[in-house]
Amino acid sequence: MNPVQLYQAALHEQLDQPLATATSLDSVFYTSPDVFAAEMEALSSRTWRVVAAAGQLSQPNSVHSLTMTGQPLVVTRAADGTIRCFHNVCKHRGVPLVTESATAIKAMRCPYHGWRYRLDGTLERASHFNGIGDHRVCNTGLSSLDLDDIRCATWNGLVFANAGGEAPPLTATMQALDTRWHEYDFTQFEYGGDLHYRLAGNWKLVVENFLDSYHNPFVHPALNKASSWKAHYPIVEPDYFGVGSNVYQSDVAGHGGLPILTGLSPAGQRRAEYLCVTPTLMLGLHADYLFVLTIDPIDAQTTDEHVYFFFVGADKDDPKVKSARRNVLENWDRINREDIPVVEGMQVCRNASPYGTSVFSPFHEGPMHAFQRQVAQLMANRKPKPRQASVDHAIHELVGSEA
Hints:
Elements: H1 3-15, H2 28-31, H3 33-46, E1 49-53, E2 62-68, E3 71-77, E4 83-87, E5 107-109, E6 116-118, E7 123-125, E8 149-155, E9 158-162, H4 170-180, E10 189-199, H5 203-211, H6 216-219, H7 221-226, E11 232-237, E12 240-245, H8 250-253, H9 266-270, E13 272-278, E14 281-285, E15 289-299, E16 302-312, H10 319-350, H11 366-380, H12 391-402
Antiparallel strand pairs: 1-9, 2-3, 3-4, 4-8, 5-6, 6-7, 8-9, 10-16, 11-12, 12-13, 13-14, 14-15, 15-16
């Protein structure tokens, strides 16, 4: 069966069942390069993925480079403040334009032949293309030498991209979460740093681990002491899922002294929720900070994980507040590093023939079941790409696409 058929079968036979009788995805979904390629096509086409924190481009005339599943991208903020996203590829010889983030620049200059692009993606000049000092490009036979842009939108300090252009508007994607968290004024948050990890594990294992509080007392004893699994409640809704707690205390968690969002009810000040909205987007909301965990799948068995942190902007220059912010990043860095060997160990076992599918804990693993159903539903509704019949056919398609 092709990957779409595999997901259709898993959805029908395993996941579209009550939690108590459902069974999890088989190992092939975590190891097959064909499954991975089909997943990436679906994620690129039909979902929004975070490409930056807007605070990483806080100044006009800024650029931020990244890769997304191996594709070089660049996010720009022009002089008028407009944020855009492009393929980070010079249209002349296919060299990356931007190799590191920068501010106070007026154009992106290709390091190979000096072609320059404005921050709106238009070609400013093809340096010396028609001779020394003659920067014109004439009669190329191409419709445009401007950069290829990518659909881009922002939400509460995050920059999202939808490379395939098929996702619903970002406002629609985030609407249910906005409704749930309406009490929280996100405009009070400001970007406060990030963490990055590369794991030898399939991207879905990283998300499943985020949704799993079942492992906390065994893998994260310090975290479980500060936020006991006994106080967690599962959240499973059509547009998001995860876990929450109504006993959050920043001083118990090890970072007391952070200013909290104004306007919160006493219940809101004690609430902490950790939700997955899209297959690669997870958020942890507290009264005094927000973290956003995003997944960048590299291949079937390798994943990059990015964590962006946002803090209430009040008193940010106070030494005690700075120290508390550092404690937040250090605590989550420790927690994430505790998870890495577990996730990588699960990948090793997915590669071992004895492991197949398993059951879900009806008490703990409702959010994980919801995530696997979300991915399976996304994939089951895709039409499989036709396989290339031969090398000659593939070459014909390639030449035709460039004509």
